[in-house]
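Run log, item B.
One chain of 119 residues. Sequence copied directly from the ordering sheet:
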Amino acid sequence: MDYVNAFWVGGLICALVQILLEKTKLLPGRVMVILVCSGAVLGAAGIYQPLIDFAGAGASVPLLGFGNTLWKGVKEAVDEQGFLGLFLGGLKASAAGISAALILSYAASWIFEPRMKDE
């Protein structure tokens, strides 16, 4: 049942974002910022963690989950280090995911020969 919950929650998040992209004139970069900020706000309000507990990767993998991870890292760092934690917490909490994305993207560029799109 965990897989089913992850599938439908993740799919619902993606469908709602797709509707937002189709029905508004927001650019994809702005939608990404909205998602990360929304995840941080929902995490701060205590709403997003129960969703992650219910749906697992279906809620933690989308950009909302990234915003929630940033929030949790900042909260823990501020509790431990005070004001300096505002700057260190998010970076420390998300470093592994960001590093993996950069390294795997670079490795994929060796395999698939990237080139500019012809418009």
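Observations after the first pass:
- Residues 9 and 58 are 6 Å apart (CA to CA).
- Residues 2-112 form one domain.
Flagged for discussion on Thursday.
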